[in-house]
């Protein structure tokens, strides 16, 4: 009986101790579980991070290789298109040069034209040299005549210095072996005729006569009366002075622009322009328009049918001189290319210049 009570008391005591420690043990179990689960979750997350890094590395490498392959294809395509364009330009250049040399321009006609132009230029230069030499001789002759005339006028003015038998002049010194050139010129010339100046010519200005015409050197019209003389003193009244009246009478003619312009000025300007155009143009034939050029082209006879000469090799057999010994090291031009399947999609998949794909 006592043992039964003891067991019952022991169980009650253990249950009470367990009941007292239940909350603390529960919290400790929760803390242990949270720590373990945190370690487990962190380990799993680190595992996921490592695997995600591996997956991203593989995917990025795959996409980069695909992008690089596309870039290589685009670069190869652009290079191929540039090569095709360059080769097409070369082909067009050769073909256009061949067509122009064969159908448009005649080498021998151009050569004859240039030779004729050179001969004409030489003739024009020779004529210009002769004309310049003629002008130089004319200027020298006019200068000599002017100098001779000035010397004659000076000799007429200095005729009073001519020597006589009794008194030698200043240009005929007895200490010289012969007379001076001026002395001989004084002997050949005649003295100036004396000028009889009337008394009524004296005026306030001195030189000219008041009764002389308004414009010296201009002949007086038939039936025109001479102008009245200008008095030496100012008359009494509202009149101008003699100096002002004399200056107005001696004033030169100042015609207006309309009077100076010729009545045929337009025709003269047109003739001058035509002569200038005819003198400055280099070709005798007028410019022909590009439209309907075959109608304006003159017929050129063939050398094979119109002459007894041999056929011309230039233009039929070759167009330029070739030296095969200088071309041994060069690679021949490849005229065969691979099939290009991209020209059927021109303008839809790439640009005109081949820069954007």
From TrEMBL:
**InterPro entries in UniProt:** CellDiv_DevSignal_Domain (IPR052318), IQ_motif_EF-hand-BS (IPR000048), P-loop_NTPase (IPR027417)
- What are the record keywords, sorted? Repeat
Cross-referenced PROSITE patterns: IQ
SUPFAM superfamilies associated with the record:
P-loop containing nucleoside triphosphate hydrolases
Q: Where is this region: Disordered?
A: 190-222
- Descriptive protein name: Spermatogenesis-associated protein 17
Instruction: Give the source species.
Output: Oncorhynchus tshawytscha
Q: What is the lineage of its organism?
A: Eukaryota, Metazoa, Chordata, Craniata, Vertebrata
Primary gene name: SPATA17
């Amino acid at each position: 009986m006592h043992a039964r009570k003891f067991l019952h008391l022991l169980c009650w005591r253990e249950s009470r101790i367990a009941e007292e420690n239940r909350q603390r043990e529960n919290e400790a179990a929760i803390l242990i579980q949270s720590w373990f689960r945190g370690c487990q979750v962190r380990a799993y997350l680190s595992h996921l991070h490592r695997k995600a890094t591996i997956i991203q590395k593989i995917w990025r490498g795959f996409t980069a290789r695909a992008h690089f392959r596309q870039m290589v294809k685009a670069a190869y395509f652009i290079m191929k298109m540039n090569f095709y364009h360059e080769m097409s330009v070369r082909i067009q250049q050769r073909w256009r040069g061949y067509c122009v040399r064969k159908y448009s321009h005649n080498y021998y006609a151009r050569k004859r034209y240039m030779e004729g132009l050179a001969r004409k230029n030489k003739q024009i230069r020779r004529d210009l040299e002769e004309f310049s030499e003629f002008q130089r001789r004319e200027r020298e002759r006019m200068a000599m005549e002017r100098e001779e005339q000035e010397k004659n006028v000076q000799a007429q003015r200095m005729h009073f210095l001519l020597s006589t038998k009794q008194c030698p002049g200043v240009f005929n010194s007895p200490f010289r072996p012969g007379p001076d050139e001026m002395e001989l010129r004084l002997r050949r010339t005649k003295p100036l005729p004396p000028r009889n100046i009337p008394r009524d010519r004296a005026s306030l200005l001195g030189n000219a006569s008041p009764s002389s015409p308004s414009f010296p050197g201009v002949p007086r019209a038939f039936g025109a009366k001479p102008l009245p003389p200008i008095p030496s003193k100012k008359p009494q009244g509202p009149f101008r002075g003699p100096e002002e009246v004399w200056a107005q009478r001696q004033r030169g003619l100042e015609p207006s622009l309309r009077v100076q312009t010729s009545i045929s000025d337009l025709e003269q300007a047109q003739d001058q322009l035509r002569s200038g155009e005819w003198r400055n143009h280099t070709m005798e034939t007028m410019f022909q328009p590009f439209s309907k050029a075959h109608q304006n082209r003159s017929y050129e006879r063939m050398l094979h049918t119109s002459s007894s000469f041999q056929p011309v090799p230039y233009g039929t057999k070759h167009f330029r001189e070739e030296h095969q010994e200088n071309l041994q090291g060069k690679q021949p031009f490849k005229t065969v290319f691979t099939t290009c399947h991209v020209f059927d999609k021109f303008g839809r998949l790439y640009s005109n210049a081949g820069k954007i794909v």
